[in-house]
Amino acid sequence: MTFDATMRIDDGTAVVRLTGELDGRSAPTLNQLIADAVAAQVGRLVLLVHDVTYMSSAGIRCLVFAHQKLPRGAEIVLVGTRPEVAETIRLTGFDRSVVLQESVTKGPAEV
């Protein structure tokens, strides 16, 4: 499956819609969007991951990159994480650094 990522920044929140497999080939695309969000000085990063079918360690490194580069106290939210992707995040322990939720409860819902 091909990977696609689009981002919209609105009112201090970056919303990124991801589709496909987040692996070593696609991770640089997400990292660039994260860098763009950091440059825009957002305080919240929402990743819409309903359509992410696979996340490798490179995808986890993208989350770590976001956590390191965003301002202290910034929130990283993964929305619609499939069970197999959520399990990867939990196995690394990174679920303690991000918020996993089934649907958007506040902020922009669409990109």
From TrEMBL:
InterPro entries: Anti-sigma_ant, STAS_dom, STAS_dom_sf. Residues 3-111 form the STAS domain. Signal peptide: none annotated. Transmembrane segments: none annotated. NCBIfam families: ant_ant_sig. This is Anti-sigma factor antagonist. Belongs to the anti-sigma-factor antagonist family. It comes from Microbispora corallina.
